[in-house]
Amino acid sequence: MSSLETIKRSLRNYLPTSVNIDDFIKAEMTLALLEKCKPEGDPTKAYLLLHNYSLLGEVVCDETAFLLQKAHRLLHSCSSKMNWAKVLENYRNAQSEFCLYIFTEKIEKGSKVLKFARNTELAVEPDRADVYFEYIRKHKEDRHFEYAKGGKYSYSIKDKKSSTVYSADVKIPDRTPQMPVSPPPKKTRKKISVSTDELLASAAEMAEKKPDDYCYAILKSNTLKAVTEGNVKRAKRLEIDKITNLVGMVGSGKSTLMKVLSYHLAKADKKVVLVLDTVSSVLEMCSYLSQFGVSVSPVIGRSGREKYIDQVAKAHEKYLQNEYSKYLTAPCIIDGMAKNKSDKSSAPMFGNEPCRSLMKNKKHYNCPYMDICPAVRMYRDVYTSNVIVTTVQGLAAIRLLGDNKLFLEYVLEQADLVIFDECDKVQKTLDEFFTPSASFDKFRQNAAALCSEVMNMDTEVLESLDDNEKEYVDKLSISVRVCMAVRNAINSYGSKWQTILSRTFSAEILYNSLCKDNKGNKYISDKALAHMRRVTLGMDNDKDIEYLMMLVLSQQKESKKLSEAFNDWLTDNNCKPDKTFSDHIKLYLVVASFDNYIREISDSYLFLPYERKTQQELTDFLSTRFTAQQKILPSSAMGNLFGMKNDPQKGLILYRQYAFGRALMDRMPWLRLTEEGQPAGPNVQGQAGRTAVCNIMSMCL
Fold it and tell me: What is the pTM of this model?
């Protein structure tokens, strides 16, 4: 059987140079999945196969589920409806005799439907579908990063209060760090089974080591019960298989059991991850377990270390306890070697260390002292600790140093048990974490400072600005006009869509509503609407529609120029007179143009020089992508969307839906599958004072 590289070489010999081979291959891989899973399916909706939806509802465990999960990672760019439409269109425009699939359009129920089928006359690499499946199954992501070699480097230090950025230089000797390496991923996890007698024995050991510890007394005075076939009975064993819920009243001993179980499993050299509510509780738990000789370490973010120091510092004490200070106040080696530092940048850089941002010739490098630097000790301790304690945000977002792997990936590969404390709150936190929101009005107000700074620059300084920065400032300068144009359009054109506009909505939702109102070509041809949609997405060009999109954001109220241009477009497309429908088209164009405006700001911001980036609500919102997490988690059932809400008091509130967040907790064992489709992630225990999230197994204490 051929390899993927062989197929690429063969296709390059036949396809025009204008065809992007990688996109061509992605299109065929996705269509091969559709052929395997649903041969009669609509190829325009094949992107839905890449959303990991098999984890929603009843989980399916078979070889196809594994294949789709791997494809979800490899073909992630095709999971976007807009991107898939472009990739599919380009594939259809390629020379069909060299394509694995051919297409036909059929009329079903009065509408055109696209059908696809295997090209039976294919002469070039006819077995390529099997090659695609094998490649998807075996694919592993490559991570490319470089450590700084001997030489001179620079790095930036941002003052957190003023957002002023200072620079420093450092000369580094040639050195290759010996970073810890993750062991091979564990296979399917066995269920955890511990008798109540074993737990009491471990609690007794804890009492011997620390006589004032209360765990033994509390555990001995409580009863463990399990729900079996609908009946609650006393249990002699705690069994955690896939997902288990521990439910009990406040103060009933759930946290005590968590501590004893962690101690007991650590003795057996198991890897346990505790997910707690706050950073202070994370640090306190680490301090507590370390008293019993448990190998334990925290995983928390670096940017809030100064706040964490205040939280754990005891009154009237000059120094932090050692178990806190070794993680929170450790110095940066590079910062100690730096030259040419200003006075304001000489303070310790807690959370601002240049671990991955040493600069040379406009390129970033990793620090070569990661393996010994005390400032990042907690990320190294992950590899050797039996118990790791973190927060929901830490589990979801933090990256380990060295191979730049998500901590979540490490947990899926190595942890034997993950315990979520207060899991009824966790699901809400996860949903919100992967659905961030931001106020456009606050961003507009905060942008005034940067716009004012640029307006006051000398001409010589202004001309020296990077083109991307000029474009970014230009976009900021029209934010007031854009904001008012959108709000006025909602008030002026949305009278008949109040139900839709009173909730969070998007351009996609408005377009679907237009199509629904226009059912049966009631006002305008469906073809004209579809063309308009494609132009707003950048998939087609049309000077008239592009001109309208430019006008709708440049007018706070409808002008004669906009009205004339819009009426001309309606006339050219034989639109029947109807004010409400026409207003709805205008509103759609405004919202679609605003989407593009936000996307342009986002792209410009990403390429700004580090020293020009400011910490604002919307800029954080724009720069947060969660790309790596999206490759692991399933998409939201409604799709990953960008939308807005027009709040009468707060103005325009923007939101993004990145993933189905709670799946990180209630589907964790299935976030990694074996080739047979069996769960290969860690066992999970969720504990809550009132309700349980999953009902695979319920237990009471």
Answer: 0.87
